Amino acid sequence: MQDNSNRTNIPTPVGALGIIGMAGCEELTQKVDNYLTLWRKERHEETHNNQMFLEYVRDSYQIRSVCPRFGTGEAKGVLKESIRGDDLYILVDVFNYGVTYTMYGQEVPMSPDDHYSDLKRIIAATGGKARRITVIMPMLYEGRQHRRTSRESLDCALFLQELYDMGVESIITFDAHDARVQNAVPLSGFENIQPTYQFLKAMKKNIEDLNIDKNHLMIVSPDEGGMSRCMYYSSVLGVDLGMFYKRRDYSQIINGRNPIVAHEFLGDNVDGKDVIIIDDMISSGDSVLDIANKLKEKGASRIFICTSFGLFCEGLEHFDKAYEEGKISKVFTTNLIYRSPELKKREWYVEVDMSKYIAYIIDFLNHDESISELLNPVHRINRLLGKE
Q1: Is there a shared CATH topology between the 4-194+355-377 domain and the 196-352 domain?
Q2: Is 180 helix (H, G, I), strand (E, B) or coil?
Q3: Whole-model pTM?
Q4: Which residue in 32, 70, 76, 369 could disulfide with 364, CB within 3.0 to 4.6 Å?
């Protein structure tokens, strides 16, 4: 991918760029803003005399906004500056439980529902004045409730339809649990982006003795639903692929899901090989740790876990124990959602920074350019591996 700061013949922007970072997304938004500010200042000589590029170079593209709350927990969205005619990008992390508010004198952590409601408040506050609104929601709200299997709500489809009805033109998400949910809004923009290149780059940087060939490395999917994701890794790296099949007890539901009875491995011999387990999220972590344990029993060397979203809903102690016992070596997750201070201190944890990638996407879209090159990282991966 080309250096974004040195682009020539820059197309006219759709509108003045505006970025809103919702509560809990400030750190990621600031990093994205820093990249965009730097790149556009470096293009100043080409754009400063062009009337079509007014307000193109600024010290910051962030739009100040707040969602103050009343004592009852009710809230409102407030924009503190004009967004008229702006090409607006709203970054929201609906899974940031580190943000709290006061309700009836009690400190309450924000739930995904709270974050989603605040997002709608900010969209409503724009009053239709923005030229275009794009929502960047790295982990899709209600993404695991993407299909109906009985008399139940279809929350993810409903939220997509609701945002588009409010005037949102496009939604950008990463590693959706099931991207087919976009069929609920077939005439609207929906981009599901895979952070494959960023994970491989982080692994190359942090694991110096990683041998990427079929004799030393294997990709493993924790279930059949993640096979397409893992097939991509396996193909571009030229290594074997294995899969675990989850046997579930469908006679009962615990914590909203059918409990897993056992994991059955389908794949080639893993004896002596490093294994990369690829998944979209770590929730409790029980499943991925059970898989790591079974791979160790089969003679696997080192176990690396790459997952876009590290929720760790039931704490970090299970991962601490697995690391101490040598069952896992490293866990890679992105900075697309909240990471607790405790997680960042763990020796087994590696953070994959996605801010530059998001800045590229915003910059290309603001100029109404195709992002196909950004979405297909094959050439970048080959250069990373020394194949080009």
Answers
A1: yes
A2: helix
A3: 0.92
A4: 369
